Give the backbone structure.
Amino acid sequence: MTEEKFDTLRIHGGYDPAQHHDSATVPIYQNVAFSLGSAERGEAVAQGTVPDAYMYSRVGNPTVGVLEKRLAALDGGTEAVAVGSGMAAITYTILNVAEGGGRIIAPYDIYGAALDEFETLFPKYGIHFDLVTDINDFDEVKSLIKVDTKAIYVESVANPTTAIADIETLARIAHAAGIPLIVDNTFSTSYLFKPIQFGADLVVYSSTKGINGHGNVVSGVIVDGGRFDWNSSRFPQFLENEFILKSETHPDNYSYAAVYGRQAFIKRIRMKYLRLMGAVLGPFDAYLELIGLETISERLNKEVATSLKIARYLQTNPHVKAVYYTGLPDSPQYPLAKKYFPKGIGTVLSFELAGTAEQTKRVIDAVRLFLYLPNVGDSRSLIVNPIKITHREVPEERRAASHITDQLLRLSIGLEDSDDLIHDLDQAIASAFK
Ligand SMILES: *Cc1c(COP(=O)(O)O)cnc(C)c1O
């Protein structure tokens, strides 16, 4: 059989109705625990040697399991683990890669809560960040790689400027140094961009956003490309023998690297972080995600087309000083956009008003269709002023480089009629300058 394409996998991936009483849609397994059958099978399940066996829903659940398999397939990865939020996905990934301490290279231009965590919380656990202004300054990135550097971490499309990270080059730099590249692909979703195709090792999502697409579930997922070799002294946590992995087939060497090879990362997150720290995704939330995912391609096609139309409209508005949307042909990053994002750069854009802070507030108060709130990737269109809400964590001296000014507004484009959205922005901007 030929490999199934994205639009087929988003409907059928990871699910066999024959295994679930022929139920056409994925059932909600709203239960905590699973009968182990016999004493012999119980022991095997506990050791993790029975494929697709479930025991306790904090560690794995069949509804969540379908979502995990489907999302792994959509990204071209080998395995995925779903967690309770995008922040949990980022946190577990960083801890699993840098456990016991180390350094990680990342840009300043990342999700506000992630930046806050990297700067103020992880250092207390011995994990330090080398933050750079321009992640595509490859000489600087290379110069920061030290013996205790554990990974490079980037967002494929940054927030709110939509700056693009050159994933293929960064993956090459990371691999030459024996470290993985981690990509937060939330803004793009696997429909617009598949980081693993360009060499990324681990992909994290806030599936709260475009993957689910309806603003009704908080969730996260970590996808593994399955290519990185964790059998390295740089990652001693993968080389330690773990009692729970000991079995007759590997009685002496039973570390994650020895037992699971290049599939060790997700296995270890599930058993060390999900099982022990417990930020689990519930089956009903997974079910809602599966429904949202079924229409991802149509949603994004329309939202991306509307985003481009709105970006072009904003460029013609005399009260707009600048539009930040790297999908525009006059963007300096347009060559990267064409290479990595043939279906479009995404559904988030931002613009700077040619006015005062007061006038910017008036735009927020005058929009009627756009909802004023800190979220993206919803079927509703959203507006926010990053400086006051989503990017408060960015230190003042760092804001200018990311265009985080009093006049900056970020839009997340939904599924409404594009002319109605443009009309809404037009009347709101006009009323702010009356
Ligand atoms: C929202 C978001 C997160 C955090 O996700 P939650 O699901 O809200 O925890 C992380 N990264 C990016 C890029 C986001 O937009």
The CA atoms of residues 47 and 247 lie 7 Å apart. The chain has two domains: 6-30+61-292, 297-432. Residues 85-87, 111, 114, 155, 159, 184, 186-187, 206, 208-209, 218, 220, 376 surround pyridoxal-5'-phosphate (CB under 6 Å). The two ends are 63 Å apart (CA to CA).
